[in-house]
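WARN retry 2 of 3 for item q-0093 after timeout on previous attempt; input resubmitted unchanged.
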Amino acid sequence: MALRNHSTITKFILTGLSDDPHMQALLFVLFLVIYLLTMLGNQTMLLLVRADPHLHTPMYFFLSNLSFVDLCFSSVTLPKLLKDLLSEKKTISVEGCLTQVFFVFFSSGTEACLLSVMAYDHYAAICHPLHYGQVMCNQLCVRLVFISLGLASLNAFVIVLLAISLDFCDAHTIHHYTCELPALFPLSCSDISIVTNILLYSSLLHGLGTFIPIFFSYAHIIFTILSISSTTGRSKAFSTCSSYLIAVILFFGLGFLCYLMPPSGSSLDLLLSVQYSAVTPMLNPLIYSLKNKEVKAAVKRTLGKYL
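OK item q-0093 returned
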């Protein structure tokens, strides 16, 4: 597979995060720690949900899928970044670039869908507790995950088609540490207005299409929580939802900034991208476990079996 071009470009050069060898060494250690923590945290969440029967509920089923997606999300970019921080030549093939573009959008799109599904799960649990077991049956949970994967795959496929349609001349230096479609726009010698508009509308459609259900679900949830007379019940409900809301604000806030701002290759662009694709997947298991008594109890039970 090759991009349509005038000079038969076979690879791109990534400028990375820094040209300073000492800074690259520090960044390598930093991102290695981030990647290892991401692997450890999300794999721990996957193992806990699988091993502990108390966590065999729709909420933790979706959370385990979110952990798996976070593993994929960070693995799309961080291993390549770590390799480049130790290399003099930071290159990536056209096929590798397109693969990164696909899986970045696939991972982020699936995560957006799963967060929307989790909001509906919280809505059913808090607003309709008596019918929760009937509404969130196993078959529906599995279907919702497959629908999330399907929608994200379709969106990512459209994005890759946009990347293939770009027309390149001689420029092949990407001012970024990874292949993202907006970072390819400055390299194109053809009119990118149509491609830019399609990317904008696609991102808005997928982003708002997943965020709006979250907004309305949590509007109902907050109204229901405020109507709870018991202070204990109200605080428990708020505690359950607060971790999720932090994850949503981080993901959607950084996502909209990354893909709706004009690409400039500035330090701010790189910082937002790092926060979105590297830091958020690391923080998600911490956010969901630090304030979650059920996860803490599952950790104690699991460790008790082996100690």
